[in-house]
Amino acid sequence: MGRITLDKVTKSFGEVNVIPPLDLTIEDGEFVVFVGPSGCGKSTLLRLIAGLEDVSSGQIRIDGKDATDMPPAKRGLAMVFQSYALYPHMSVRKNIAFPMKMAGLPQDEQDRRINAAASALNLTAYLDRRPGQLSGGQRQRVAIGRAIVREPSAFLFDEPLSNLDAALRVGMRLEIMELHKRLDTTMIYVTHDQVEAMTMADKIVVLQAGYIEQVGSPLELYHSPRNEFVAGFIGSPKMNLLRGEVAAQHGAATIGVRPEHLAVSTSEGQWPARVGVAEHLGSDTFLHVHDHGFNDAPMTVRVDGEMPVKHGDRIFLTPDPSKIHRFDKQGLRI
Amino acid sequence: MARAVTNRRKLIVTVAAWAVGIAIFFPILWTVILSFKSEGDAIKTPLEVLSSAWTFESYATVQERSNYVRHFWNSVVISLGSTLLGLIIAIPAAWAMAFVPGKQTKNVLMWMLSTKMLPPVGVLVPIYLIFRDVGLLDTKTGLVIVLTLINLPIIVWMLYTYFKEIPGEILEAARMDGASLRNELIHVLTPMAVPGIASTVLLNIILAWNEAFWTLNLTAAKAAPLTAFIASYSSPEGLFYAKLSAASTMAIAPILIMGWFSQKQLVRGLTFGAVK
């Protein structure tokens, strides 16, 4: 069980309104990712759900029950923090046992759950160590273990992978996804990394300045972004946004073409341009092209890694007509 | 070659460090040496002092003339009492400022520190008169109160810095894990704050033990601590070097021993925040 409903929830810190009235429903068992640039209110929103911040107005319901004024301990949610937030003076075993000790579970049940969590997270050998003696990845696993043993109705993750190095991050990402498949429990995950959002989510909530810009599956957001902001935020490298005459030709104020939807030719095509910096990833190459005559910013094009182009080459770009996104003056999708 | 340079530099730094260390320690060492000399030998040139005979004479005289144990006991009561009272006031204060800061928290901290900038002699007369009127002159209670007030800003500042170092997320994690406020305090906050509280206690005991201005001015005989015991052997003529040294050595010995055993804790407290 873990259906969470936010009804006209607002949050202000003094004069500053961080979350304007916001409605959102998270279904039981869903993996929902809150994504947005820093300061967009995604962490605040998570903390409101956790009960670590009080809402200024509106209602939060968990499994149909009004949880707006419940203290965090009573909400039945577990949270994994960016800094891991382990208890430094306790062993791994005691860290994991802490929520069960608070709940007054019998000792044999505690031991059973600790052992199950430790073997699932490869922590069995480290149960008697202190957090200070563990690596970043191991600490994050302890934090997850501490969350699992509570058997919460939902897990809250606040940028849990930001402190890990790139290789570990990919590994932990997979582990969290595995965990979700296995436990089938609601998970709410906050990140500023759109790659994490795309790869992990059942449902992505894109936030900007406290407003929900769009809610949808990763591919919905990729294929039909509701506005320019979502179009620019989802997808890597970013979508090229072109204004002026070229947009007018398509009956829009702005058009967007993703780097992977531009065909490149050295002989002919719609838009002549000049190659600037090329980023070779091996499988793909990202070309930053200039002098395309639309606006000052370079456009990004994704080409095959084998394509023989170099700095200063003249090339021609042709957009895939079915993959052109059109936006009106307000930035909304047409 | 690089290695040789490093070694030479290491040697220079080591010698310099020892020189500074000995220079700082020298007055205490000399006091201890003089305390084992006769009054006549103690005023001779340093070389003569070192070669003269050792004696316990000064210690015997000091014991005879004044009551060390009573002064010692007064010092213990005053320094422990003011530290305990200070902690009772400062822990909640520092706790509130560290974990629930308001708009004025920084200003309150600065204001508290600013009271340390006032020369104590500036408030001596009013405090003396108040103490006289309420009957606190020459009482241990009076000194406990004064020393608590004098050292309170330092206790609050130290504890504040320690509490600040405890990440708020850990307390939030405890709350998410179902801990009540009481359990949060007992199982998470206190164990994490104990080292900080311990260093604060140690430093404050030392400060209170050595405080001389107020203890000398507000006591006569009954409540006089060891500082007054030392002062009673200092005379403008400087004729009682050996006895003064013996009294000083006896006064600083307890705190020196305590400091020696707790030096690890103390150094951590004094340099806290300097190295992370």
From TrEMBL, chain A:
SMART domains: AAA (SM00382). One of its GO terms (cellular component) is maltose transport complex. Residues 4-234 form the ABC transporter domain. It comes from the Bacteria. Coiled coil: none annotated. GO terms for molecular function: ABC-type maltose transporter activity; ATP binding; ATP hydrolysis activity. Keywords: ATP-binding, Nucleotide-binding, Transport. InterPro entries: AAA+_ATPase, ABC_transporter-like_ATP-bd, ABC_transporter-like_CS, ABC_transpr_MalK-like, ABC_transpr_MalK/UgpC-like, Mo/tungstate-bd_C_term_dom, NA-bd_OB-fold, P-loop_NTPase. Pfam families: ABC_tran, TOBE_2. Belongs to the ABC transporter superfamily. This is Sorbitol ABC transporter ATP-binding protein/mannitol ABC transporter ATP-binding protein. It comes from Salipiger marinus.
From TrEMBL, chain B:
It comes from the Bacteria. GO terms for biological process: transmembrane transport. InterPro entries: BP-dep_ABC_trans_perm, MetI-like, MetI-like_sf. It is found in: Cell membrane. Its main location: membrane. CDD domains: TM_PBP2. The chain crosses the membrane at residues 12-36, 72-96, 108-131, 143-163, 184-209, 240-261. It is a multi-pass membrane protein. It holds the Pfam family BPD_transp_1. Residues 72-262 form the ABC transmembrane type-1 domain. Keywords: Cell membrane, Membrane, Transmembrane, Transmembrane helix, Transport. Signal peptide: none annotated. Coiled coil: none annotated. One of its GO terms (cellular component) is plasma membrane. Belongs to the binding-protein-dependent transport system permease family. This is Sorbitol/mannitol transport system permease protein. It comes from Salipiger marinus. The lineage of its organism: Bacteria, Pseudomonadati, Pseudomonadota, Alphaproteobacteria, Rhodobacterales.
